[in-house]
Amino acid sequence: MLKFFTIIALTGLFSCGNDVKNRPTKKIEANIERIHTDLDKLINVGADLEIIAEGFTWVEGPLWVEEAAMLLFSDIPPNKVFKWTEQGGLALYLEPSGYTSNRARGGEVGSNGLLLDRRGNLVLCQHGDRRIARMDALLSHPEAKYTTLAAKWKGKKLNSPNDIVERSNGDLFFTDPPYGLNDQHIEQQELDFCGVYKLDTMGRLSLLIDSIHRPNGIAFSPNENRLYVGNSDNQKPMLYAFDITPDDSLKSAGIVFDFSKFGGGPDGFKVDKNGNIFASGPGGIWIFNSSYELIGKIHIKQRVSNCCLADNDKTLYITASNQVLRLRMR
């Protein structure tokens, strides 16, 4: 096991109040742990980690929009989506993002996972409204106008959709834990389980799994014949693999990784074109090769919630508590 440390210059640092303001450049110590030589194919020795934006409450759901060269991400408690570009820096993109009622309520009400569907629409996991919704506006001219895609299962409200992924045929797969409910109160749940669902292109909702206590991150393998689901339950903090059968039911393919000994579980994660998995977990980003071997870690002091890949898998964006980070890879 090899470790190296590098001093990082942090550029493009922003905060977000009513006005976006540049902040002085900072330096922090980054720690990338090399466990397997496969990591050398992904991340250069001495790679820079940058803070591109900070000053948030709890950021999640990073989404890279290639055509616009912009990063979108949710700040969940204040009910906002922000955008960041290399040229323009940070700006408010969408508000409200996850809760559209005027009634005051507690809990994490904003959007969580974000998705750009195959038609170029922004799809949001809306905690407060407890639904999967599509923004009814152009990406270039965002408005807080939404169409509900899924909100109930057999007449009962969903818990609080968390993360979402699209299959190449347009089907949406998403997780539904209770994290967006007010203090996760069980009495607010109309369903007595937390599910993993498929929403097909005809708008039909199917329950795929109801046995995972806290389903969270979700992603496909590159060939889409396997679905990965993270369980952020402290009792069984696992990253699971499921084979997708011809009728789209799921068959267990085992455990990618058991986080039980590491003081936390997996949150959001992404899979690159070669099947490598970049998973947020205790202490930072955990990187696995396509054989599910742990090949390295990006140690981050802040609690990490999610990540996304950009630039043909050469850049990794990371949401970490009140900060958004960028790692340029090979």
Automatic annotation (TrEMBL):
Q: What class of enzyme is it?
A: hydrolase
EC number annotated for this UniProt entry: 3.1.1.17
Single GO term (MF):
gluconolactonase activity
Could you list this entry's UniProt keywords, alphabetically sorted. Hydrolase
Report the InterPro entries cross-referenced here. Answer: 6-blade_b-propeller_TolB-like, SGL, SMP-30/CGR1_Lactonase
UniProt entry tagged with the keyword Lipid metabolism: no
Q: Which Gene3D superfamilies match?
A: TolB, C-terminal domain (2.120.10.30)
- The record places domain SMP-30/Gluconolactonase/LRE-like region at 59-321
> Which Pfam family, just one, is annotated for this protein?
SGL
Q: What is this protein called?
A: Gluconolactonase
